[in-house]
Design brief:
- This protein is mainly alpha-helical.
- The protein contains four helices and no strands.
- The protein has one domain.
- Helix 1 packs parallel to helix 3.
Length: 89
């Protein structure tokens, strides 16, 4: 193997290692964000059950599919919402 080939191989290996590490970091961040979203969804469903007793399945599914921003907004609204319709208005 020539010196140029060795240099190119070392560069490729270094690039692969850097790419793998960046992918791991991004995966950890995505996992952390999804974990936060799931925790918010769980909290909201618990609060809905405490406040309104019965949570229709379609609303539970809506909460499970919601964005973090939506969940935060609904959690704030649950303090003043008179009905589930008010909560999701």
């Amino acid at each position: 193997m020539t010196a140029a080939q060795e240099w190119m191989l070392e560069g490729m290996e270094k690039g692969l290692k850097q790419g793998l590490e960046k992918g791991r970091e991004e995966g950890r961040e995505e996992g952390r964000q999804e974990g936060e979203r799931i925790a918010l969804a769980s909290t909201l469903v618990q609060l809905m059950r405490l406040r309104f007793r019965v949570v229709p399945l379609e609303l539970s599914a809506r909460v499970d599919a919601a964005t973090k921003a939506d969940l935060q907004r609904w959690i704030e609204r649950i303090l003043t919402a008179e009905t589930l319709d008010d909560l999701f208005a």
